Amino acid sequence: MALKALLVITIVLLDFPNVGWAEEPAERSEWGKRVVLPAGQEIQGDYFAFGPHVEISGVVHGDVYAAGGDVLIDGTVDGDVIAAGGKVTLSGHVTQDARVAGGNVTVSGQIDRNATVAGGDVHLTEAAHVRGNLLSGAGNIQLAGHVDQDARIGAGNMTVSNKIGGNLTVAAANIRLTSKASVGKNIRYWSEEEPSIDEGAQIAGTVTRREIPESLKGEKFQRGWTGMKVAAGFVSVVSTLFLGLLLLRIYPVFSQRVTATIQERFWASLGVGSLLLAGVPLLILLFMATVVGIPIGLLLGAMYLATAYLGRVFVVLWLGQKIVQSLSILRSPSWTFVTGLFAYTMLSLLPLIGKLVTLVTVLAGLGAILITKKELVETLREQRVV
Fold it and tell me: Is the pLDDT of residue 300 over 70?
């Protein structure tokens, strides 16, 4: 990823408001509306797009950062792509790296370098072509596209039905290679089940099974893991309670402003939070790769984790306000927060949507904090206070 693009994220995280957006002659509308870069239009420089529906069909001579409920990139990106959303479709041409995360991810375009893809369901169609390496984590992944180099997969279920030019390294409960599958080198896998390899599949190297450590199997491990999760959950609820009450006492105005941002611009908050979730860890790793940058990487990592954790407090407060308003009762901010924390805790324990609730809470809170900080500093500068 270009260093300039990563530094944009650093500037936002460190609370400097003068972040420049690329000139956008496209239909770049307000937060919460459809964002479209039509076919035939070009952008010189990096392009940022957030909203419920994002469509990039034109040409971007720079990096693309996109987040939303439904993200479609079917144009040409002469740079990197970082995209996150409920549903992400990448069917265009990316000349450098692509990093995509979403509930449902479909890749049917060409990526000239490496691809990192994560999601609940990931599908690389027959038209997909990754010229570099593929790194993917998913509940279910269908790898029907062409990967020129190595593929490293972590999944619940994985199916390969096209060519992988290098090694295939996979950890999955179920592994299948169809008759169209071809692996240019070796296969290494971690699974309790033998892979299903159809007749006609071609494997140039060896197939090696790696044993799952005994410490990660068995009833004893499951009991211990369950106990750890219960203890961690209790500590998380108590710490969030004390932190929230402390913030409401020390920073009541800022807390209300962040909560108002979530209420008025939820999709904006979610979009900014998704971008930071995808981009900042990569920036931290880039700094940590050099001796000089290690202190910066450690500082940035600490600030990032602290901000992400704080974000939950404001989403919980917003949830409490919604409940109190719906019941038409008056409560103090503290009791409103406690009400929201109880509701959030119950939602997070639900078996099907609990993890999604937690993820959305972190993303929306993180984004709302940064949007509010930026607006507050801009207001102070307009008033010549800073």
Answer: yes
